[in-house]
Specification:
Blueprint (H helix, E strand, L loop, with lengths): L5 H4 E4 L3 H6 L4 E6 L5 H11 L5 E9 L3 E4 L2 E4 L3 E8 L13
Antiparallel strand pairs: 1-2, 2-6, 3-6, 4-5
C-alpha cells in the first residue's frame, strides 16, 4: 500500500439532502480515498479545516455498480464514504457554510 498524504485522503464533499440535514448535528460527509483508514481521515480533516476537532469517524465501502454497453459488462469504480462527527466546541467546516 502506498503512503497516503493527508491532502490526498479527502476527495470531495457529499452534498445530498440527508447529509445537509446531518450538518445540524455537526456531521459532515466526504468521499475519501478507498484505502484510507479512520485515523488518516481524522488527521486530514483536522489539518485541512482550521479549528476543527473530530470526535468520531464512520466509514462505508461501496462496491462498483455493474454496467452494460451492448453485450459487454463492466463495473464502475469502488468508492468509500466517511461521515465525520465533530465535537461540540469545534468550529464548523467553512466549505458547507454557503449551501
Amino acid at each position: 500500500m502506498a503512503d497516503i498524504k493527508y491532502y490526498d485522503v479527502i476527495l470531495k464533499p457529499v452534498i445530498t439532502e440527508k447529509s445537509m440535514n446531518a450538518m445540524a448535528e455537526k456531521k459532515y460527509t466526504f468521499l475519501v480515498h478507498p484505502s484510507a483508514t479512520k485515523n488518516q481521515i481524522k488527521e486530514a480533516v483536522e489539518k485541512m479545516f482550521e479549528g476543527t476537532k473530530v470526535a468520531k469517524v464512520n466509514t462505508m465501502n461501496n462496491d462498483g455498480k455493474t454496467k452494460r454497453r451492448g453485450m459487454t459488462f463492466g463495473k464502475t469504480a469502488k468508492t468509500k464514504k466517511a461521515i465525520v462527527q465533530l465535537t461540540e466546541e469545534s468550529a464548523d467546516i467553512e466549505i458547507f457554510a454557503g449551501l
